[in-house]
Design goal:
This protein is α/β, with parallel strands linked by helices and 489 residues long. 39% of the residues lie in helices and 17% in strands. Helix 5 packs parallel to helix 7 and helix 11 packs across helix 12. The structure holds nicotinamide-adenine-dinucleotide. The site of nicotinamide-adenine-dinucleotide has 30 residues, from helix 9 and helix 10.
């Protein structure tokens, strides 16, 4: 028996119980009710409408949050317009000082933000603490560095800011998406009105306190909360640019709405990434990459590796290893430091995942979920893998945005490329092989904005991120991320 076979035959440990290791929650102090942050002040929405934001881990009500109406959004845009003159005429090195301050304050208050992010959004604390917060701070640090070097970033092109940017973000990385949007816009000299997602407004609201601490001039950043109505009002308001991250359907609606208005637009939309494993790959590392690709943040990741393509000759051992690894994932309280897979963000999202999983069963795919005890209250879904999946199944075509993986196979590199590209999306892809030449060959042919090689879900502020096809257009991150916030003479 080879070493590999021996290991595969070893029994799966039955008990992975860890003693609870809850992160202290009292580091966060919440207001009972939040207004809108306009012109550096907290203001009540004109018609007084509010909604309750809950924790997805147990539906505990956390706070009352304002629903902005058309007039509130217009007031926020007017405040941003008023602040633009002064902000855009500051020397870049002065704007950089504010961004550096924001970055440092985020680092100092990172535990507080991480706990609130997990409480309001459901993601495991180890992810908010080790990924979301460090990356959010890194984005502000990175773009602070560009603020006084714009003419070097775009030589001979005389860059100037656009004016007021309207920014709309989703719920899967609430603070990180805020950082992705705000940092380049501010570095380039724009002022901003930002709308967080309705299920996760709290870290954006806490961030207003960071702006106050950093003494950012009033009106440079305004935060309006609410559901899609507030987003639609921002799209229609007197802004110069809309930056949207969210679903493809809403992105298309926004694009139609803005056609012919002259407002600039960038769209970061959905994805259905292929994670491709060749038979020469280091299989144990690849399995870690598969798990990270789809179960990180409960699969609420636009670039999640939700379609696994395995070379036919190694399909069996890979699936076997994957199932064994899945059995070790700890699903549960997002605030427990041992948790690997937290709560699903909302009831609506849970229903969407359940419906798509049901369609997978009905269409004939074979389902596997490791035995795990899910908490009784709150929104939960066990890590899931489907085998026997055909390309035409909904689970292989539609974005599930949950911890659900579809496994397909291929024989040749050409077939892998063809199958991987057979989707309306084109956000990201992963390739696992020991051959550098094959990585380059694949990367040239995969229609995806990001291609990871022998890794997955790696982010860095210096690296541009964005999509092809129905995954959107425009890039965030890197020097490319400045361009959508600049006009050139
Ligand atoms: P969503 O489109 O429903 O909502 C996103 C944001 O748009 C929210 O703030 C929402 O309130 C707002 N909104 C809703 N209707 C609107 C309208 N008519 N006009 C203007 N704004 C409106 O998406 P979601 O369910 O919150 O997020 C999940 C989606 O986001 C997934 O499809 C995912 O792939 C995508 N996403 C993409 C990226 C990326 O970088 N490409 C990153 C994260 C998430």
């Amino acid at each position: 028996m080879s070493k590999l076979e021996k290991r595969a035959a070893a029994p799966v440990p039955k008990d992975w119980t860890y003693a609870p290791a809850p992160e202290a929650r009292d580091v966060v102090s919440l207001e009972e009710r939040y207004g809108l942050f306009i012109g550096g002040e907290w203001v009540e929405p004109r018609d007084g409408e509010a909604f309750t934001t809950v924790s997805p881990r147990d539906e505990e009500p956390l706070a009352q949050v304002a629903q902005a109406g058309v007039e509130d959004v217009a007031a926020a845009v007017a405040a941003a317009r008023e602040a633009f003159q002064q902000w855009s005429s500051l020397p870049g090195s002065e704007r950089a000082k504010y961004l550096f301050r924001i970055a440092r304050i985020l680092q100092e208050r990172s535990r507080e933000f991480a706990v609130l992010e997990s409480l309001n959004g459901g993601k495991p604390i180890k992810e908010s603490r080790d990924v979301d917060l460090p990356l959010a701070a890194a984005h502000f640090f990175y773009y602070a560095g560009w603020a006084d070097k714009l003419e070097y970033a775009f030589p001979n092109r005389s860059p100037r800011p656009l004016g007021v940017a309207g920014q709309i973000i989703p719920w899967n990385f609430p603070l990180l998406m805020l950082a992705w949007k705000l940092a380049p816009a501010l570095a380039a000299g724009n002022t901003v009105v930002l709308k967080p997602a309705e299920t996760t407004p709290l870290t954006a609201l806490l961030f207003c306190d960071v702006l106050r601490q950093a003494e950012l001039p009033a009106g440079v950043v305004n935060i309006v909360t609410g559901d899609g109505r507030a987003g639609a009002a921002l799209v229609d308001a007197e802004v110069d640019k809309i930056a949207f991250t969210g679903s493809t359907d809403v992105g298309k609606a926004i694009q139609r709405r803005l056609a012919g208005t002259g407002k600039k637009l960038t769209l970061e939309l959905g994805g259905k990434a292929a994670n491709i494993i060749f038979d020469d790959a280091a299989l144990d590392q690849a399995v870690e990459g598969i798990v990270n690709g789809i179960y990180f943040n409960q699969g609420h990741v636009c670039c999640a590796g939700s379609r696994l393509f395995v070379q036919e000759s190694i399909a069996e051992p890979v699936v076997e290893k994957l199932k064994r690894r899945m059995a070790t994932l700890r699903v549960g309280d997002p605030l427990d430091k041992n948790t690997d897979v937290g709560a699903i963000n909302s009831r609506m999202q849970l229903e969407k995942i359940a419906e798509l999983v049901e369609s997978g069963r009905a269409e004939g795919a074979e389902i596997y979920q490791p035995p795990c005890r899910l908490p009784e209250r709150g929104y939960w879904f066990a890590p899931t893998v489907f085998t026997n999946v055909a390309q035409s199944y909904r689970i292989a075509q539609e974005e599930i945005f949950g911890p659900v993986l579809s496994v397909l196979t291929f024989r040749t590199p050409d077939e892998a490329v063809e199958k991987a590209n057979n989707t309306p999306y084109g956000l990201s892809a992963g390739v696992w092989t020991e051959k550098g030449s094959r990585i380059l060959w694949m990367a040239e042919r995969l229609r995806a904005g990001v291609v990871w090689a022998n890794t997955f879900n790696r982010f860095d502020p210096t690296s541009p991120f964005g999509g092809y096809k129905e995954s959107g257009f425009g890039r965030e991150g890197g020097r490319h991320g400045l361009e959508p916030y600049l006009a050139f003479d």
